[in-house]
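Lab notebook, bench 4. Still working through the backlog of constructs that have no structural model yet. Next entry is a single chain of 179 residues. Request: give me the structure tokens for it.
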Amino acid sequence: MKMDRVIEQPTFKTERLVVRPLVKSDAGLIAMHTSDPRVAAATRSIAHPLPPGATEAFVARAQSPDRTEDHWVLDGSGANLPEVLGILSLERMDRDQSEIKYWIAPAFWNTGLASEAVQAMVALNPQNAKTLFGSVFQDNPASARVLTNAGFTYLGDAEAYCVGRAATVPTWTYTMKLA
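Model written out:
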């Protein structure tokens, strides 16, 4: 009998959020938020328009024991907010490094929820990374503030392809040493 490798993902709380692994029932709200062109334009990998089945495939990958990226839902239901406000992700890299990624629904932009979640993730450091990286599109300074509020420092300029824009977009890269 083959034993599947299971990667445990912790659930943790902030003042207004429960940050928890994805479940299948999250797909509807994730699809609703990611179908917004503003969310797609702020991320590297969300297409616009969102193809049929894309969200269900994302949730299935997030639950796979072979994943290289962990995803958490920003759940605000304990604070009388929607059950899915956004996604926070950590991608495993080599040499004990991880890349943090996040998006939040436009209705909750500039509320501090993304900063709250990222700061809690950094404090928890669930992948035991020695270094964290994050990058944001240069036309999204609010997302850059999320990283700097969490203690990240500017590393340099780069560029990344944005599926939702079908274009290469200039980025700012940030880093944080944890060990």
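Notes after review: The chain is about 25% helix and 30% strand. The mean pLDDT is 95. Flag for follow-up if needed.
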